[in-house]
Design goal:
Blueprint: H1 2-28, H2 33-70, H3 73-105, H4 107-110, H5 122-129, H6 133-140, H7 145-150, H8 154-170, H9 173-197, H10 201-216, H11 219-223, H12 225-250, H13 253-260, H14 262-271, H15 278-288, H16 292-305, H17 308-324, H18 331-344, H19 354-365, H20 373-376, H21 380-405
Helix pairs in contact: 1-10, 1-14, 2-8, 2-9, 2-10, 2-16, 3-12, 3-16, 3-17, 3-18, 3-21, 5-19, 8-16, 12-17, 12-21, 14-21, 15-16, 16-21, 17-18, 17-19, 17-21
Amino acid sequence: MKGQNKLFIAIIFALILGVVLGGVIHTTYPDSKEEFAKNIKLLGTVFIRLIQMIIAPLVFSTLVVGIAKMGDIKMVGRVGTKAMLWFITASLVSLSIGLVLVNWLEPGHVTTLPIQDASSASEIVSNSKGFSMEDFVKHIIPKSLFEAFATNEVLQIVVFSVMFGIALSAMGEDYTKPIIKGLDVIAHAILKMVGYIMWVAPLGVFGAISAVVATNGFEIFKVYAIYLRDFFFALAILWLVFLLVGYIILGNRLFELLRRIKEPLLIAFSTTSSEAVFPKLVEELERFGCNSRIVSFILPLGYSFNLDGSMMYMTFASIFIAQIYGIDMPLGQQIIMLLVLMLTSKGIAGVPRASLVIIVAACGMFDIPVEGIALILPIDHFCDMGRSMTNVLGNALATSAVSKWEGQLEN
């Protein structure tokens, strides 16, 4: 625990130092801020790429071993059903909270934003136009395992790993023991690598934060104060609901879980990447007492189907854009939008800036000007910090809850 506390303190220190340095560069050396941001961001890029390097082999090895060791296909189906019920319920709750609070607080009616250049959103708009049911199916089912590995398509790796693990479990333990043992060794070796890579996290946090503060400065918070205030208030309500449910299921062990995942939460907040903490989250949930087979099965699924912070942001941002343009959406239409977002958002975790892509697609479907996405782009990085941290919390609670329901949560 001493080593963990040292890392946590180092990340906090890097976060503060990054904000200070970024602010100094923005105010004192405005002509150099773009070049500075481009160079210092490389520290964050190094950390993210180190993590991305081990995600695919970790998901594959842990998931195959977990399912093969279960041996009981009925248990796989039972655990998977419980996980999907949690994911669907959590998604509906997240979307509903975003919808209710954006209608109650009405940030789009009281916020005065500067006119943004719509060209800044052109890439996101173009990405959303091609999204269809065909793309959705292609995104889930891998054409090649090696392609899925190369592009870190977690959901595709999960699909192959589940089928491969079930096939191994059906072939008999005597026949498959060497393969399972080899993959188990690989999984433990990768988790050992996680311990080394996490000490690069403070540098990654420092680079990511100082780059964004140097580029945007502190003035951006004044312009978007109402939008940020209302969004983070909505996130706080979502956290309150999740923690209340977590306490009902886990009891006082909820506080132990929060202590365990404090580093993953902080890293996700600082780097705006819930993917960056996946290996560390696997490790901490197993230390918390969750069954390793359940962790290796549910967590990869959660990273594709259970992005609660991103879900809440979708309804919040979509209605906010409508409010900015003075578009009054009836309640029935908003509920239809919620259901559309619920369906279209599943399984696109690998799409860059997935939340914004889905928001643009939804806006186009409900006659809301899609160029309105340019209004929230300048502050999206800071919203993404809250979204990513909430995604991590939601997946940690889902895995712990299913482990408890299966009687597989150890003290």
